[in-house]
Amino acid sequence: MYGKILVAFGEEDPLNQKVLSEATAIAAADHGVLNLLHVLLPAEAGLPDTGYVTADGINATAKVEAFRLYLEQWQGWRQQNQQSLGEQVNQLQAQGCTAEWSQAVGDAGRQICRVAKDWSADVIVLGRHQRSGIQEILLGSVSNYVMHHASCSVLIVQNVEAASA
Question: Taking a C-beta distance cutoff of 8 angstroms, is the pair 126, 150 a contact?
Fold first, then answer.
């Protein structure tokens, strides 16, 4: 029933293991393929403001240097995430699961939906943060966006302890 399972991970989220556990159970039942997805959001990684121009029209050296440093950090962050995803895939394959990984850049909800559509996923499995009220309005809800825009089924995993706290 669910041959292609897209597993969307958040930033070092304690819920990631529970999300992976649920996805692995689905894959085992249907001999499905897992695609572990992590979406990088540049703004959260500290993108410096490079639009500063001095009175004579020349970009300030400090801004150029800040952007160069940011690019180095970005590459390191991207490679670290790729390595982590690769290690998780290797562990899953050692357990007999068929798995691969992918990484996207941009708005998490939109990228999850795009990857799911492009990969022809049968189901998306992702976690849900317990944001509510003004926090959800300001920060948005990736799971809510995916639930309303995905081209396939969506399984939302939430931490029961966090929900009752």
Answer: no
Does the pTM of the predicted model rise above 0.90?
no
Residue recorded with tokens 């996923």: 121
pLDDT at residue number 163:
47
Contact 127, 160 (CB under 8 A): no
What is the token pair recorded at 27? 């894959």
User: How many C-beta atoms lie closer than 10 Å to residue 52's C-beta?
Assistant: 12
99 to 1, 75, 96: CA distances (angstroms) = 17, 24, 9
Specify the number of domains making up the chain.
Answer: 1
Counting as low any pLDDT under 70, the low residues of the chain are: 12, 42-64, 129-140, 160-165
Determine the Cα–Cα distance for residues 145 and 165; give it in Å rounded to an integer: 24
Residue 150 and residue 120 in contact, taking contact as beta carbons nearer than 8 Å: no
CA 74 to CA 112: how far, in whole Å? 20
Nearest by Cα to 39 from 116, 121, 123: 116
pLDDT for residue 139: 47
Domain ranges, residue 109: 4-164
The CATH number covering residue 84 comes to 3.40.50.620
